[in-house]
Structures are given as structure tokens and as C-alpha cells.
Amino acid sequence: MNGVAPGVLWTAMPLELVMDGMDQSQAPAHTMEMSVGDGLMLQVVPGADGMGTVQRLISGNTQDYLDPRWQPGARVPMWR
């Protein structure tokens, strides 16, 4: 893991599950950022059907992370 700063991971999951697949390099999907509200940004993978798949939510408001509309894997219209 090059370029990764040391940190602490608090989890009850076995280390083997947490680290599974981290040694495999994977080409990142084409993503783009889109604004969906005041200070709310989504990183999405655009689809051919005009819908995008949420990869990441970027927000300073912790309540936004509880909204199921913005969870990773959710589908959102790209015309917002």
C-alpha cells in the first residue's frame, strides 16, 4: 500500500476480511462529480441509461450520510 498514511481501524471484523483484495490493483471506473444540493456532492459512475450509480457522498453535514438516496450503489438521474 504505497502512499497510505498509518491509521487505526476499529472493527470487530477479522483482519483477513478487512484486508481481502487490497493487494489487487483495480482500474477505477470512470467517475464524475455532480451537485445534488446545498453543499452535497456525489461521485457517480454514469450509465448509458441516463442514470448514475453513487460511488461516494461528499458532504460536511453528517445527516446527509443517513439518507438512503445517497448511499453507495444507489441509482440517481444524471440530469439533476
Quote the average pLDDT: 84
Overall morphology: globular
Q: Which band does the percent of strand residues land in? A: 25-35%
| Rg result | 15 Å
Which spans have pLDDT < 50 for at least 5 consecutive residues?
none
The profile of the biggest β sheet is:
4 strands, antiparallel
Strand segment count: 4
Helical residues, percent: under 10%
Number of helices: 1
Give the ordered list of helices and strands: HEEEE
Could you provide a short overview of the structure?
The protein has 80 residues and is mainly β.
Can you offer a commentary on this structure?
There is one protein chain. This protein is mainly beta and 80 residues long. It has a domain at 30-77. It is 6% helix and 30% strand. It contains one helix and four strands, in the order αββββ. The protein has one helix at 15-19; strands at 32-37, 40-46, 51-58, 75-77. Strands 1-2-3-4 form a four-stranded antiparallel beta sheet, with no helix packed on it. A hairpin with a 4-residue loop joins β2 and β3. The radius of gyration is 15 Å and the shape is globular. It starts with 14 loop residues before the first helix and ends with a strand. 5% of the residues are buried. The mean pLDDT is 84.
